[in-house]
Give the backbone structure.
Amino acid sequence: MNDTAKDVSTIVAFPLPDIDTSEFSESAVGTITTDPVNFVGFKLAVNGRPAPFQVEQRAFYKAGT
């Protein structure tokens, strides 16, 4: 909450849940949406209006699973 008279800019993260890749083992990459960067179709709205956002992708590998 901003209790001042000035606007405040900040970065807000929307972490998405882990993706079970076994679900897509029989599908070509990118079959969820046509956007190769935002392939889960994430959308952001502020006060009901679409808002721009940046995508940061990270992948983790856990050996032995």
